[in-house]
Structure formats: C-alpha cells, structure tokens
Amino acid sequence: MSGSGTGFRAGLVLSLAGGVIGVRAFFSPDCFRGACSVSGPMSGALIAGSGQDSDQQQQTPTTRPSVAPTLKTLADAQDALLSRVVDTNGLVRYSLLQSDTALRSALDSLVSGYAELPTPAAENTNKRLAFWCNAYNVNVMNEVLATGLPKRVLDVDGFFDKRVIRVGRLDLTLNDLENKYVRELGDPRIHAALNCAAVSCPALGRKAFRAETIDAQLDDLCVGWVNDTSRNRVDEATGTLHVSMIFKWFESDFTVKPYGSVTGFIRSFAKEDSAIGKHLKSRAKSGLVSIEYIEYDWTLNRAPEAEEDKGRESGSDEG
Asked: What are the helix (H) ranges across the chain?
C-alpha cells in the first residue's frame, strides 16, 4: 500500500449501533500491497531494533466509552453491518454505507470499538488473527468513506502508509496493521481475509472473524480466492498458470509449512474439478508449473448500482 502526506484531526462523538456504544475518534490519518514489501516469511523484523514489544509500540491511554466493547459485541455488530453493505460477490455498497445514517453510525462504532479494545493476549493466536483482520477490514471501509469514495484508493495520497488509524490503543497505518501485526502471526491464509478496497483483492467476506471459527473461515476464503477465475486462472493453450499479484508481492509468506511455495499453497485450496486443480494434478509428477502474475486492478471494489438499490430496498439480503 503506498502514498504520502496527511493531516490529523481528532474529535469525540458517542454513537450506538449493534449494541455497541463507542467513542468515535475522527482521524484524518494512510502501503499499497507490495510497495512496502517486507523480506523474510511474515517478517517480524519490521519492528526489530525498536526497543519495544510490538504491542507496546506507540501505546497510549484511550478515552473509554461508558460500555466497553468486547470481541463478541464487535463481531456481532460487524456481522450485521457486512450483511447489509457487502453483496454476494464481495463488493461493497459504499453509496448505501455513506448515505444511510444508521449504517454509517454502525461503522463509526466499530472503528471506535477496535480503537478502544486492547490487543488479545499473545498466546491466543486465533483471537489475535480475528481481532487484527476484522479491524483492518473495518478501517479500510472507513478510510474509503473518509477520502470521498475515490475511484482507486492507490491514488489517495498515503492511503496505506501515512494516514493514521487507531487499533488496539495503538496509532498505526494500514500498512503497519497488515505487516507488523497480521502477517507477523505467520499464516499466509490472511491474504484471502484482508480486503484493500480494490477489485483485484480477494472478495470481502460477509461475516466477521471469530476465534472459534477463524480456521475454517480462512480455509473457506482461500478456496474461494484460489478458484475464482477472475483472480487466478489457467491458459490451456500455453499451460501457464496466471495468478494474483499478491502471490508475487508476498511470495515468502507462502513458503511456510505445510505449503512450501506459492504452487503448494494454490494446490492446497484448488478444487479437484477446477481448471487450476486439474492443471496442477497433471503437473504433479514433473513439478514443473509455469506461473505468470496478473496485473492488479486497483479500481474501487464498489458494488454496481443495482446492488446498491437491492441493499436499500431489502434492508438485508440473502446471508
């Protein structure tokens, strides 16, 4: 995620949505996936030499809402929001989110909740995964609205690497959140979970992540992503596998066990009857797989007008 320059302003507003009361902190805070690359698998070296534990970095007291949020209340509220504003193709009804006061208030409360809630304990990896992934996706949606629904977030100065957000009582950028906290947990499946508001990003899920179900959720998202022919496909004529640029930008992430490589990761989630699955099976003995990377489309992952209307008319669609 990349960009430059920003301002910062702060204010507090109490809001109530989905049963969560939050203090809304307004930040005009902004790495394009790959522009701020990190070497080594899930490199924790990003914070090496800081003299601080990652969870203590920039940690400062936060004004507390009258009712403290919890992982469960935030996930429940996020479920309700996602079911309204994300269509079945994983695109976002930004116009609806922008114009509907209740939905906007619900998003504000989620942003405030993830800002206030302390980071889950280090020994609970699933809770940390759910917390960081949920917070990332919520803050990306909020930043899209805060920057005026740009045609491409990559064109917004510092969208990923300069604009300041607040998560777990830490002041961060979206790049910090992804690279220092989510990727640091060592699970490459998170690349199917984080949505950077671009058409080429893996489709945004319609359910919040929860510690007790996140393992299955990540598997399901990876199956959907790997077998999505708009993002990964086979050229039958040349026998070349064309895959998401994410596999190039974060290649080292996919070398961890049990995958071992980008090809190994894709093979793990390719359906046997899919074109990719059949292609990889035919190359299993030789191990020779030709890979090319698809140019990333940074167009905003905005739902078409018909889907916006559907969201307005139904109040909620198929879950």
From this structure: 71-85, 94-99, 101-116, 125-146, 174-176, 214-226, 246-249, 262-269, 275-282, 305-314
Q: Where are the domains of the chain?
A: 12-43+55-301
Token pair recorded at residue 139:
């803050």
Average pLDDT over residues 90-111: 97
Q: Which two tokens stand for residue 123?
A: 């020994």
**Burial of 123 (C-beta count, 10 Å sphere; 0-12/13-18/19+):** exposed
Pairing between β-strand 240-244 and β-strand 233-235 as defined by DSSP bridges: antiparallel
Q: What is the pLDDT of residues 276-285, one digit of tens each?
A: 888 888 876 6
Q: In what order do the strands lie in the sheet with 233-235?
A: 233-235, 240-244, 290-294
SS3 16: strand
CA distances from 186 to 1, 129, 180 (A): 20, 10, 11
CA distance 245 to 55: 30
Whether the predicted pLDDT of 1 surpasses 60 = no
CA-closest candidate to residue 311, choices 100, 77, 19, 106: 100
Q: How many CA atoms lie within 13 A of 107 on its CB side?
A: 27
Bridge pairing between strands 240-244 and 290-294:
parallel
Helix/strand/coil percentages in the chain, nearest 5:
40, 10, 45
